[in-house]
């Protein structure tokens, strides 16, 4: 296999300053840490190898600007991901200045447009959905997105307010999962749950004091929406009231609760096995 062409070396001199891409939206001028608004008038920021690689491999993701170190770009090129955008070759410190001190960017910083958000009506009627009730920690939401992508969840439903943006820290924690787990943004979670119910989805709220274990809960053959609340607060009362059932994850140990991203992973595993069992029974 021929080696990819050697990219130009970064130049020494003045610190890199952000310039608006030709014909594209401005992303904050030369500010070191641009803040992108909730409505994504500015670009989504993706950094780190997995997040950037998955974005480059996703034809639905419109790219604006890529900053890369020589080694990081060579790695992308060798993987066949270097033909969609020409990078600006930089040194690691130039990316450091755009991110928080603890950000691990691995020599890659990508600005791209937000993915088109689906709607409740576009979710398959027999789909598996995660509903997030005001989970605000971007690390937790990113981990949930990654897990949802691994389980091929049909959608993640969350509110436009009281939830982190699909950019930066969340995107890094998702490790490329944003390209594979559709996020449905809604204005009112209770109304979104009602809409799912009208479409035939069974809405199951996860609660540590739920009346029955999730693995003993009949999930049926149709769509299933697993509803997760924020750590500490759990599900809000209106969210609980809108669910068809409440269920718990059985914890035999002294600790009765889990990090919400871990709870999401276990819940999805239980639901997938239950639905596979129903499907197998129906074809037997």
CATH class of the largest domain: Alpha Beta
Assembly annotation: single chain
- Helix amount, in percent? 25-40%
CATH architectural designation of the largest domain = 3-Layer(aba) Sandwich
Low-confidence regions: 1-41
**Helix/strand-derived class?**
alpha/beta
Question: How many E strands?
Answer: 11
Q: How many separate helices?
A: 8
* Strand line-up of the largest beta sheet: 7-6-5-10-8-11-9
Number of domains: 2
What is the first-to-last residue Cα distance? 48 Å
Task: Report the average pLDDT across residues.
Answer: 84
Using the CA coordinates, give the radius of gyration: 21 Å
Kindly report the name of the CATH homologous superfamily of the largest domain. SPOUT methyltransferase, trefoil knot domain
**SS strand fraction:** 15-25%
CATH T-level fold name of the largest domain: Alpha/beta knot
Could you describe the largest sheet, including whether it forms a barrel?
Answer: 7 strands, parallel
What is the global morphology? Answer: elongated
Q: How do the helices and strands follow one another from N- to C-terminus?
A: EHEHEHEEHEHEHEEEHEH
Short description:
29% of the residues lie in helices and 17% in strands. The protein is an alpha/beta fold and 284 residues long.
